[in-house]
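[recover] target loaded
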């Protein structure tokens, strides 16, 4: 599984200027590329919306060797209701921590500093020297640790770096950003802001991966599809759903069209 890599996390944003300002001026990231679209994505990249939208890839370096953030903006939607699914992205860097400490409403703890962007998404900053990519991990909520372990480790081949009764730390390589899964009481609520994490693998693995998930009875949100990317090679995508993340059935949004854009 050494060819597999954590790529990016998708966040829906309602105020593009404020979000980009936060990612650049507080977190110290840079805009890597920006694309505008006139209609919805075939893989629901922008959520269950058919109208005009954009995406901005932003991070600490090239998408080829850094974990980055995809900021998805749907024209006409000013905000998204947050659930309890996204617990934050952890980033390390002393200069980043110093800037975060100047943000109004930041929370200081022994573990570091937590700040939120204009959309309410949390970012946890560690005041430590950084080597390589400053992004340490993405933390998501799950309802069942064992089911998530079976899904991500047994079926998707991730390495388990640590496990407790309430959490898993997973990754494909020591030098990559990790995926942390933390158990919450009750159901996982994705609300309207639900995002997703992307990984890469060899193109030849995708069809077999989709087949295995179908055989095991796991949900395929988007079957294998080719997506054209301006200025880059066409990519092939399969979108899967961790069974311990889908308790509130928010994935049904992917199949609903024609919803009023002011209801998000």
């Amino acid at each position: 599984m050494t060819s597999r890599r954590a790529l990016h996390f998708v966040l829906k944003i309602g105020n593009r200027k404020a979000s980009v300002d936060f990612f650049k001026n507080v977190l110290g990231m840079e805009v890597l590329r920006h694309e505008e679209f006139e209609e919805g994505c075939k893989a629901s990249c922008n959520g269950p919306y058919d109208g005009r939208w954009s995406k901005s890839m932003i991070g600490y370096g090239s998408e080829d060797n850094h974990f980055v953030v995809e900021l998805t903006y749907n024209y006409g939607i000013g905000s998204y209701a947050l659930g309890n699914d996204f617990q934050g992205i952890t980033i390390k860097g002393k200069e980043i921590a110093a800037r975060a400490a100047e943000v109004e409403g930041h929370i200081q703890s022994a573990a570091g500093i937590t700040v939120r962007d204009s959309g309410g998404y949390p970012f946890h900053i560690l005041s430590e020297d950084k080597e390589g990519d400053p992004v340490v991990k993405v933390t998501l909520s799950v309802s069942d640790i064992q089911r998530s372990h079976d899904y991500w480790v047994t079926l998707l081949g991730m390495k388990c770096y640590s496990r407790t009764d309430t959490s898993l730390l997973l990754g494909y390589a020591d030098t990559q950003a990790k995926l942390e899964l933390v158990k919450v009481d009750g159901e996982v609520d994705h609300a309207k802001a639900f995002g997703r994490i992307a990984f890469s693998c060899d193109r030849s693995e995708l069809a077999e991966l989709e087949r295995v998930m179908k055989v095991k009875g796991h949900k395929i949100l988007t079957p294998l599809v080719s997506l054209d990317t301006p200025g880059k090679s066409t990519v092939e995508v399969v979108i899967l759903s961790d069974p311990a993340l889908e308790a509130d059935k928010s994935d049904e949004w992917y199949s609903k069209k024609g919803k009023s854009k002011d209801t998000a």
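[recover] notes: The mean pLDDT is 87.
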